[in-house]
Design brief:
The protein is built from one helix and nine strands, in the order αβββββββββ. The strands form two sheets. It has a five-stranded mixed β-sheet, with no helix packed on it. The chain has a four-stranded mixed β-sheet with strand order 2-1-4-7, with no helix packed on it. Strand 5 and strand 6 form a beta hairpin. The longest helix has 22 residues. The structure holds copper (II) ion (CU). Copper (II) ion (CU) binds next to loops.
């Protein structure tokens, strides 16, 4: 009888876990963390067009990247060592979005599909 109770409890847990997966909104925010440590890691991310993006730049050592500049988007945000900077936008179409330090020495890219 105790075993049966355990099985039911596990089944209930599984249902909750599955429910959470299904509950995730189809048009949810695409979140990712990019570590800034003498470069951007990961240097490339794949994103879906038409869905909001929230990138967290976790800055360890920004070096010359006093800010992160997104080319062709009129978007830039200052970076500070030891702090996190959140950048939000919605990629409208497929393509590659390049970003980097203001001098384009440290580089990263976003592949929008
Ligand atoms: Cu630079």
């Amino acid at each position: 009888m105790k075993n049966l109770t355990l099985v039911i409890a596990l089944a209930a847990l599984s249902a909750v876990a599955l429910g959470q997966v299904h509950a995730a909104p189809k048009k949810g925010v695409q979140r990712a963390t990019i570590v800034v440590d003498h470069g951007f890691n990961p240097a490339n991310l794949s994103l879906k067009a038409g869905r909001p993006v929230q990138l967290t730049f976790d800055v360890k050592h920004r070096d010359c990247a006093s800010s992160v500049v997104f080319e062709g988007m009129k978007l830039s945000k200052p970076l500070t060592n030891g702090k996190k900077t959140i950048v939000s936008f919605t990629p409208k179409k497929a393509g590659t979005i390049a970003y980097g330090c203001p001098m384009k020495m440290m580089k990263g890219s976003l592949t929008v599909k």
